[in-house]
Amino acid sequence: MLEMRIIASKEDDSKSDTKSDSKVEPKEEEETKFDSEKLNEKDGNYLLTYTRHLERRLRSLESTKSKLERELLAAQRDLANLRQELDRLRQPPLISAVVTDMLDDKRAVVKSSSGPSFIVNISRKIDLENVKINDRVALNQRTFSVMEKLPEVVDPLVQVMEIDEKPTNITYEDIGGLNEQIQEVRETVELPLLRPQLFKKIGIEPPKGILLFGTPGTGKTLVAKAVANATKATFIRVIGSELVQKFIGEGARMVRELFEMAKKKAPSIVFIDELDAIGSKRLQVATSGDREVQRTLMQLLSELDGFDNRGDIRIIGATNRPDILDPALLRPGRFDRLIEFPPPDDVAREAIFKIHTLKMTMDPNAREFRRFLQATDGATGAEIKAIVTEAGMFAIRRAAESVSLEDMQAAIAKVMKGTKTTQDRFELYA
Ligand code: ATP
How many domains does the chain have? Predict the structure, then answer.
């Protein structure tokens, strides 16, 4: 095969030699044509590849460009923000003031926080209709013009008194005895909020406030918690001593803000626990501290009086010492209804035992609560709770599975003895 190909090629060569001999010029022409074709093809390929390369480069440059443009935009945004922030920080401070009067010529009389009062212009940015006496405003430092209206402030101490999460675990069923008291509380607090039309129909104003009084641990706070849970009203809880402040006028201001908040969030229930902390009798001989407490009490009296219509606000007070309360607090129109919380009787004590042992593991004979009624005569609800907790502790100490009758008896003896000695001790100091 190879030989044949060589021969054939030789033949071709000879043929071509003869051809070349006869026509030299056309061959050269052909060759140059062939060369230039080849060259053109090569150039074409090269150009094609180069164009593709350029196109790729262009695409990558375009994507880099758009990326850089995006970055530029972000940087410009940052710059604008920073400039704004810088301008904001460079602004001179404003002076806070309170509007004391509005004049007819669109000017206002303001009392600045530093003391003096000024008659000032109001910036056109502010809607004059919205500016009222007692509003807080900000003044320009040089011209004292009113630059903006400030939002109203509620003391953070007052703000935290609102209970957002109501004690959902406490209902009227969790209270042993106290049926009459619960009914009275519901009538005075719940009913006017839930069915105000009943009072309208009869033509009477519902009682304003109620005062729960009784020895410690008889369930006053418990009833208030159950009321909070039963209504959808805003529940504001304040302890009397929280309203006693160090600086003059602070307590009164807190009382005012407390009622402002209650009015804004009406319907609401204000529960003032340990009312005696601010509500004790006013005496002629008093220290400056006493006078501050008296000022707070007077503010409370005026709020209770409701010179301004208090709207849908119900007030519950609670105290262990009604005897030391100022008579002004107890007059009709303020704490209208006085509800006594006596120590529980036999039936109530049995019910309280049942409530507090509901989730406990107990021997059947330990659950016969009637046995314990005599030994726990005079015990309060809080003491009964302490007895069952103590009995549980005894059972744990014995490493027992359930509370026995003996645990209960030992707990009663311990708690009741403790109560008696405490009472004796108090009597000693009385
Ligand atoms: P203080 O005057 O000292 O504030 P208080 O009358 O407000 O006392 P509460 O806080 O209501 O007493 O009661 C203390 C605890 O005693 C309650 O958490 C509850 O467990 C228990 N308790 C009191 N009375 C009852 C009752 N009638 N039924 C069920 N539990 C009660």
Answer: 4
